[in-house]
Amino acid sequence: MAATVSFIAFARSWSLARRVFVLQAAVVALVLTGVTAGASAEFGSANDEAAAREMLGIAHTLAADPAVAAALAAPNPTELLQPLAEDVRRRTATDFVVVMTSEGIRYTHPTPTEVGRRFLGTIAPAAQGRPITETFTGTLGPSVRAVVPVEVDGQVVALVSVGRRVTAVAAALGESLSLVLGIAALALVVAAAGTWLISRWLRRTTHDLGPAELSRMYAYYGAVLHSVREGMLLLDPAGRVQLVNDEARRLLGLSGEVVGRPVTEAVGAPLGPALAERAVAADEIHLTAEHIVVVNQQPAVRDGRDLGTVVTLRDHTELRALTDELQTIRGFADSLNAQAHEAANRLHTVVALIELGRADEALAYAEKELAVAQQLTDAVLAAVEVPELAALVVGKAAQAAERGVELTVADTAHVPAGAADPRDLVTIVGNLLDNAIDAALEGGAPRWVRFDAQAGDGELVLAVQDSGPGIDPAVADRLFVRGFSTKAAAGPGRGLGLALVSQAAHRNGGRAVAANHERGAVFTVRLPLRAGRRVPA
After folding, report:
1. Helix (H) / strand (E) containing 91
2. Of 380, 469, 477, 468, which Cα lies nearest the Cα of 429?
3. Structure confidence at residue 108 as a pLDDT band (50, 70, 90)
4. What is the DSSP letter of 175?
5. For 119, which DSSP code?
6. What is the distance between the alpha carbons of residues 35 and 128, in angstroms, rounded to a whole number?
7. pLDDT in tens, 196-218
8. What pLDDT does 7 receive?
9. Which of 5, 45, 81, 436 would bridge with 449, disulfide CB 3.0–4.6 Å?
10. How far apart are CA 273 and CA 418, in angstroms?
C-alpha cells in the first residue's frame, strides 16, 4: 500500500508528455497482449480444425481405395493392408493409419503387437456410416483422429482411422504462433517509437509542464487577460485573431466569435488593415466607432520562432475629453488675461479723459466699449442654450480676436438645451472652430469665421464657415481620415480633430460633410435630436 501511494505521489510530478507516453505505452501493450492472446487462441482452434480436416481427408481417400476393399476380401487382410497403411502414414506424416473391422478389431497398426486388438476411441457413428473426428488418448497418447467407414455395395465392411498426435499438431501451431509473436513484437516496437515521438512533440509543445501546472496556468492567464483594464489582441503570423480579452472587445466593438478570423475582417477599417501590416507601433492614436484608443503593437518571438503579434489597446476617450476641456479652460484663462489687459487700457483711457476734464467723452467711450464687449456674449447666450457649448464659443471668439480673426454667430442660430450630448457638441464645434480659425489665417483680409446652428425636422444642423482658401478637391475625401492634415506642420498630433468630429457625429447617428462656398469652406454636421426633445416652433 505504501509503495502504491509513493508511486502515485511520484507520478503526480510527471510532465504531461511523460504521462501521455506511459499511458499510451500501457494501452498499446495491453491491446497487443489481448490481440496476441486472441490470435493464439484462434490459431490454436483453427490449427485443430485444420488437422481434423486433414485426417478426415486422408481417411476418406484410403477408405475409397479399391486396394483396401480387395484386401478385406482376402483370407489374411492384415498381410495386404499393413504395408499399405504404413506407406500412407509415412507419405502423409501422420502418426497412425489403422484399418479395422466395423467392431473395432485392428487389421493394421504402427506397432505390430497392437494388431488384432480393439481400437481405442469412438467408432459407433462410423460403423453406422457417418464419419467422425475427435481428440482422444489412445495407445500413442493424445491424438487428433478421424474415423470413416469402408463401404462395399452400400454396406459398412470396415473402418479406417487416421490420426496425428497432439504434440505434432502443437508443433505446427508453434510455428504459426512464432510468426504471430514476431508481428506483435514488431508492432509493439513501432507503437513505442510512435508514442515516443508524440511524447517528444508534446513535451516540446507544453514546455515539459504537468497537467496541474497547465490547468493552473490556463486559469491564471484567463483571469488576468479578462480582468486587466488594457485591451489585448494576439494575432498569428497570418494575421488571424488568436486571443481577445473583454476590454479589447469593448474598445473595438466586437461581438460574436472572432477567434480564427482575419483581423481585417474581425476589426474592420481603418484599424484592422493597420494591425494586419504587423508594423511596430508605439502609442499610436486610432479611432474606432465609439472610442479613441492608444495602440501598441510588437512582434511575438520565442526561441527564434515567429509567433505572431501582440497588440495592446488603451482607452484614450476620457483622457481626450479631459484634454479638450483643459484646452478650453486654458483658452478661457488666456482670453480673460487678454481682456484684463484690454480692460486696463480702457480704464486708463477713461481715467485720462476724466483728468483732462472731458467727462462726457469718457462716459461715451466707456458705454461704447461695454456695448461692443457685451454684443457677442449676448448673441451667444441667446443662440446657444447648452452652457458648455456657449462658454466654448465665447472663449474661441476671444482667441480668434487675439489672432486677428472675427468669430460671429448667425442671427438665426439656435441650439436648444438637451439637443445632443454636451461633450460631443464641444468636441464637434471646438474642433471645427479651431480648423476654421487656422484656415481663415491662411486667407486674405478680412478674416472671419461664422458659426450657425439650426434645430428642426428632428435634427440639429451645425455649420462653421471660414474665409480661408477653401478645400482642395483632390483631398476632399480624406479630410475626416485620422492622420490626414493639410497643415504644413503635420505630425503625430495632427490629423485628429476632423476625425474626432466624424467619430462624434457617427456615434450620435449623424454625419459630417465639407464643401466650398464663394469664399473659404463650410463644414456641416447633422445630428438627430435626442428622443423626446421638442424644438420650439
Report:
1. helix 77-92
2. 380
3. very high
4. H
5. P
6. 43
7. 777 676 666 666 655 666 566 66
8. 44
9. 436
10. 38
Instruction: Say if residues 156 and 150 touch (Cβ distance below 8 Å).
Output: yes
Where do the domains of the chain lie, and which CATH numbers do they carry? 15-209 (3.30.450.20), 228-314 (3.30.450.20), 320-528 (3.30.565.10)
Q: What is the pLDDT of residues 137-177, one digit of tens each?
A: 877 778 788 999 998 888 888 999 998 887 765 555 555 55
Buried b (16+ CB within 10 A) or exposed e, 503-512: bbbeebebeb
Regarding beta strands 406-409 and 448-456, do their DSSP bridges make them parallel or antiparallel, or are they unpaired?
parallel
Dump pLDDT digits (tens) for 13-38: 555 556 666 666 677 677 767 666 66
With the C-alpha atoms ordered 169, 172, 174, 179, is the resulting torsion angle positive or negative?
negative
pLDDT tens profile 317-359: 665 556 656 666 665 566 566 556 666 666 777 677 777 777 7
Q: Give how far Cα 444 sits from Cα of 193, 405, 434, 469, 472, Å.
A: 86, 11, 18, 8, 17
Q: Rounded to 5 degrees, what angle do the CA atoms 483, 486, 492 make?
A: 35
Candidates 143, 178, 185, 177; CA nearest to 162 is: 143
Residue 533 identity (one-letter amino acid): R
What CA–CA distance (Å, rounded) separates 93 from 227?
Answer: 84
Measured in whole angstroms, the distance separating CA 124 from the mean position of its chain's CA atoms is: 77
Distance CA 381, CA 466 (A): 22
List of residues 6+ apart from 387 with CB closer than 8 A: 422
pTM of the complete model beyond 0.85: no
